[in-house]
Amino acid sequence: MILQSRIPYDVSAEPRLPGIQPLALEDWLMIDDAFAGQMARREDLISTKPEAVIALSEGARPAAEELIDYVLAHLGPGYTRASQHITRPDGVTVMIDRANPMHTLGRLVQEDLCILEKQGEEHVLTAATLCFPASWMLAEKFMKPLIGIHIPVQSYDENIAARVQRLFDGIQVGRPLWRWNGLKYAVSELHHPRSESDRRPRPVNPEFFRSERQCLVRLPETRAVVFSIHTFVLKLENAGLKDHA
Prior knowledge:
By secondary structure, the protein is an alpha+beta fold. The chain has one domain. It is built from 7 helices and 10 strands. The protein has helices spanning about 35-50, 50-55, 60-75, 100-110, 140, 145-150, 160-170, and strands spanning about 20, 55, 80, 85, 95, 110-120, 120-130, 175-185, 210-220, 225-235. Strand 3 (about 80) and strand 4 (about 85) form a beta hairpin. Helix 1 runs antiparallel to helix 4 and helix 3 runs parallel beside helix 4. It is globular. The mean pLDDT is about 90.
């Protein structure tokens, strides 16, 4: 099991949609106590099933290449760079392969990274590295707009969809935003895909709490929006929930 010992924000009260808060750019990318384990799992998924965890439309290549440089500029302490290689805090060296930008990004940081670009009136998912989906599938969401991405979330109605689209339109460079969610799970597996037609059942005797720290970042050149997901999985007793003794 790959587990964190704590979540660095209060999850005792359920957030309302969209539940957005401002974020300092220097706090965007995180390293926590599950870094080595999560990165090893990411390496395995990217090498063995890239078709399930990586997507890139050719039109999104400029944004993906810009995202590499943006991530490199905002890596935290513990990373070292030499020429075209980065050594991560766990000691693993990653080649900066600009021909395969989403593969490179997936091997650099704990966060899953999704690129959304404005097409017409809506933002569309045009590229992603999604190693740790929480009950959804990249193949079903790729090249879909926001409202299609959120099927079958019942609370994501037309009112929420319009509010979220206005939010995406208003994101400013250098002023990212963040929110969190949280659900109980019976298993700790990070790679947890599920088709939108296969509704997630309520877990019986759940043992784990899974929370995503979701950030929205505007790229300065292509103006694409990056939706990043830092996944936490803890034993329920370590999550700090009010309804758990």
